[in-house]
């Protein structure tokens, strides 16, 4: 028998997803996080915070709470791929890599999270996968679920202390979900980014062309 050559994806799965999966999404994501505790100690706490926040926002705005929870639970799982492996892995998996993502490979983690959500954790609902994909920047004409997973991540950010935009974001939620998405898109667009992702640019131009 010919021995199949190990791919980079095989290597990533063996390194970061080498746990026995139960078919229970919550348990499986927790197992993966536990297995990566040494290098990603914050990950489970952040995923759980965002999942709970997404569920609570979904309830508030009359959306699918289970879908929001799932999107939140998996939104950053792609962050397990080390920086230097992100571009080659994306190319191997046939994931489109934009010039901005080559410059800042961190920007690929949403695409990886969606890929792993489907391939490793068996999530096949397109709306959930797109909410995971676009959670960092949003994009043009985002769905309500995309807005919720993105904004839950911003409310429960993984930075130090309280997010500088939090009080304004909370006020924007009191208007509409869209007002909150528009506020955060503007905040992110005007902040000191290394590069502006085209999705963010398109989302920003679209929101502010409608004035």
Characterization of the model:
- The protein is mainly alpha-helical and 211 residues long.
- It contains twelve helices and no strands.
- It has helices spanning 8-16, 25-35, 43-60, 65-74, 83-93, 99-103, 109-119, 126-133, 144-155, 166-175, 177-189, 198-209.
- α7 runs antiparallel to α8, α9 packs across α11 and α11 packs across α12 (198-209).
- The radius of gyration is 17 Å and the shape is globular.
- It starts with 7 loop residues before the first helix and ends with a helix.
- The mean pLDDT is 96.
What key attributes describe this structure?
211 residues, mainly alpha
Rg, rounded, reads 17 Å
Number of strands: 0
Summarize the main sheet: none
Low-confidence segments: none
- How far the N terminus sits from the C terminus, by CA atoms, comes to 64 Å
The number of helical runs is 12
Mean pLDDT: 96
* Strand composition percent: under 5%
